[in-house]
Write a structure and sequence with these properties.
Blueprint: E1 5-8, E2 12-19, E3 33-39, H1 41-51, E4 56-59, E5 61-63, H2 66-77, E6 86-88, E7 94-101, E8 107-112, H3 126-130, E9 134-137, H4 142-154, E10 160-165, H5 175-179, E11 183-187, H6 188-195, H7 200-210, E12 216-220, E13 226-230, E14 236-238, H8 252-265, H9 270-284, H10 297-306
Parallel strand pairs: 1-4, 1-9, 2-7, 5-6, 9-10, 10-11, 11-12
Antiparallel strand pairs: 2-3, 7-8, 12-13, 13-14
Helix pairs in contact: 1-8, 6-7, 8-9, 9-10
């Protein structure tokens, strides 16, 4: 039987700077800390799932530049399968500059797009898709994502499509992809924008109608926790686990996705999956960077026992 997660998305290299304030003008301020780390929503979700023991495979195009080399090295070190990542000669990977404010972990992000080409539909092979239990995507390489969605449908849903709708990432063109998903977990801002509703409950109801394949809709809202709306069961709220010393919210939603899919791939029931995902997100907020503190089974267990 297939298992594991195939990710389709864009890998980035993040330059993270932990600072006291966000710049308003051309001022100069000494930062508290800075580091360079691989990023990207789908890649970070896979890194979190791999850290918990799930088989993962990343699909993307990278260049032959120094940024791409660092991205690949980190993914491989983190246990993510990179054999399906293609290297384009003369192309450059995406670079993001992320300022993280010390007092609350808020972020300001600026990025330069990759110069690689988008993954075409023809590169999405049915055997690759169906050798995994889940395909996880957020709409980058949209043509490839839609092809993977069709393969999932033709598989009789043996391989299920997972969609990530991040905050401030809503685009109308993502609706057909989200509508094809078996699992759609989106940020509250994304859900409200997509549905023109004002509450998680109303947005979830509309999203279930909008996504006929979805067996569950999830809505995340940082420190307010997450809401899980199964199609054929009672919905529930999963509180966020407290973070004693929050540092950075970068990647918390991505890690939540990866841990949630790991739990589903492991055969756990929804409430346990949401608890594990919430614990993983809390862990991630305690260090700088989207992969600053990837979850381990031991760390998750400790939070679940004490939280």
């Amino acid at each position: 039987m297939s298992n594991g997660i195939l990710g389709i998305g864009v890998c980035t290299l993040d330059i993270l700077t932990h600072t006291s304030t966000f710049p308003a003008t051309g001022d100069v301020e000494e930062a508290n800390e800075a580091l360079v780390m691989g990023g990207g929503p789908v890649a970070t979700a896979l890194a979190a799932a791999a850290a918990l023991g799930t088989r993962t495979t990343m699909l993307d195009h990278l260049g032959d530049d120094w940024k791409s080399s660092m991205i690949l090295e980190q993914l491989e070190t983190q246990g993510v399968g990179c054999e399906q990542i293609k290297i384009e000669q003369g192309a450059q990977a995406s670079l993001a500059s992320i300022l993280v404010r010390a007092k609350d972990g808020a972020r300001a992000v600026r990025f330069v797009r990759s110069t690689t080409r988008a993954i075409p539909a023809r590169e999405i092979r049915p055997d690759l898709v169906t050798s995994h239990r889940f395909v996880h995507c957020n709409g980058r390489h949209l043509e490839a994502c839609m092809q993977a969605a069709e393969i999932c449908s033709n598989s009789g849903r043996k391989t299920r499509l997972s969609f990530d709708g991040g905050a401030n990432r809503y685009r109308d063109e993502l609706i057909p992809l989200m509508a094809s998903a078996d699992i759609a977990i989106v940020a509250l801002e994304f859900a409200l924008t997509a549905t023109a509703e004002k509450s998680p409950e109303d947005a979830a109801e509309k999203l279930l109608n909008l996504c006929p394949q979805a067996q569950l809709i999830g809505i995340t809202d940082g420190g307010n926790g997450s809401w899980i709306y199964p199609r054929d069961a009672k919905h529930f709220h999963q509180p966020a686990f407290p973070v004693a010393h929050p540092v950075d919210t970068t990647g918390c939603g991505d890690v939540y996705h990866g841990a949630f899919l790991h739990a589903m791939d492991s055969g756990l029931e929804l409430k346990q999956a949401a608890r594990i995902a919430s614990a993983a997100g809390a862990l991630n907020a305690s260090a700088l960077g989207g992969r600053g503190r990837l979850p381990t089974q031991e760390a998750i267990e400790q939070i679940l026992q004490t939280g």
